[in-house]
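stuck on this:

***
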Amino acid sequence: MSIEVTNESGDRLDETEFADLSRHVLDTMGVHPQAELEIRFVDTDVMSELHVQWMDEEGPTDVLSFPMDELRPGTDDELSEEGILGSIVVCPPVAADQALAAGHSAEEEMLLLTTHGILHLLGYDHAEPEEEKEMFDLQRRLLLTFLATR
């Protein structure tokens, strides 16, 4: 599995931790071992530009997902197809603000956002209440099982 983590944000973070989390999520979701994923951490200016360009919304956001080959999770019997999963862009300053409001660390918030972004790349969404429950329950389970192994 190819997971590239790039920190362009200027904030200190453990890139290995995010690669390990991503590998855990992708393995658990039955994603082909030859799949490719990129995770970028950017500052608020870059995130604001991306947010306007791709979502037509002003200001920075916490995470954006850019799917490539529209890979889907594997099944119990078969892994997903091989291909490029896509890119996730996370904004540490926005994550830090959200973490403060939620009462946990910025790192925990960024791990949550990374998991959230990967699920979006795998086709999950939260536009409808049923979808939101499914995605957020899965997101919570994936993150908790990863944290339990640390």
Remarks:
- The two ends are 20 Å apart (CA to CA).
- Residues 2-148 form a domain with the Collagenase (Catalytic Domain) fold (CATH 3.40.390.30).
- The first helix runs from residue 15 to 28.
- Strands lie at 2-7, 36-41, 63-67, 84-90.
